[in-house]
Write a structure and sequence with these properties.
Blueprint: E1 2-7, H1 10-19, E2 23-26, H2 39-45, E3 52-55, H3 67-83, E4 87-90, H4 101-110, E5 115-118, H5 128-138, E6 142-145, H6 156-166, E7 171-174, H7 183-189, E8 194-197, E9 200-202, H8 207-212, E10 220-222, H9 224-246
Helix pairs in contact: 1-9, 5-6
Length: 247
């Protein structure tokens, strides 16, 4: 039972690793859902003792990208290659929300040799079970999803349907709103093997920094204690589940 933690700075990376995260999703600007991290942060993250997957998303907003943005994304994938990170987190769709299989295939080919996660762009798809099959055909390892809802616990019915449709060919990784309160309910819905969480704690903003626009009022920092607590819960769940299978 693996715990992936998303971080957007070096302090968050250190806290997630110290708390027992099994894998890191490395981003910048988590407040916007995560953008491509800087080359410097990638270089530092490459020293982490756990696999690190870098988000490849050049800007906030929609997931319909121009040719120049595609070129930028390819260069960002090159940076992941150059820093020897384990993988990339990708996503793109077309106007009506379905996955842009053609563009994703281009990006995947450019990322050859790297691990592949499809991010929550899938939550915009009109048919998420169909999108799951597209992701399988493209060769993704896993899908990060909240089941088309703002939080995974509210999208459990869809997440369970996606997991059933996957038939073990791809991992469905619930994410959004995962914590020690919601994880037990989510894990009981299907035999998911990994979850994704932020494990962040809000901190009071600096009013002067807010006035200058250097900070936003919803900033969070990865909390080592929250990572430890969630990882501990997952480990205990796995142990109990293993014992049940033995009897």
């Amino acid at each position: 039972m693996k715990l992936e933690v998303c971080v957007d700075n070096i302090a968050g990376l250190e806290a997630a690793v110290a708390g027992g995260a099994d894998r890191i999703e490395l981003c910048s600007c988590l407040a916007m859902g995560g953008l491509t991290p800087s080359a410097g942060l990638m270089e530092l993250a490459a020293k982490a003792p756990v696999p690190v997957y870098a988000m490849i998303r050049p800007r906030g907003g929609n997931f319909i990208f121009s040719p120049l943005e595609v070129d930028q994304m390819k260069r960002e994938i090159d940076a992941v290659h150059n820093t020897n990170l384990a993988g990339v987190v990708l996503g793109a769709n077309v106007m009506h929300g379905a996955l842009d299989a053609n563009l994703l295939e281009v990006l995947i080919n450019h990322a050859r040799g790297l691990g592949l996660t499809l991010h929550r762009v899938i939550d915009l798809a009109p048919d998420m079970t169909e999108a799951t099959q597209v992701a399988i055909d493209l060769g993704f390892e896993r899908i990060l999803s909240s089941g088309g809802k703002l939080q995974a616990i509210d999208g459990l019915e869809t997440l369970t349907a996606m997991h059933k449709a996957a038939q073990g060919r791809i991992s469905i990784m619930p994410g959004s709103g995962i914590n020690t309160n919601t994880a037990p309910v989510i894990l009981q819905a299907a035999d998911f093997t990994e979850v994704h969480a932020g494990c962040g704690t809000s901190y009071p903003p600096d009013e002067r920094l807010l006035q200058f626009g250097f900070e936003t009022c919803d900033e969070k920092q990865t909390d080592k204690g929250k990572v430890q607590a969630l990882k501990g819960l997952l480990s205990r769940y796995q142990e109990r589940n293993g014992e049940d299978n033995l009897h």
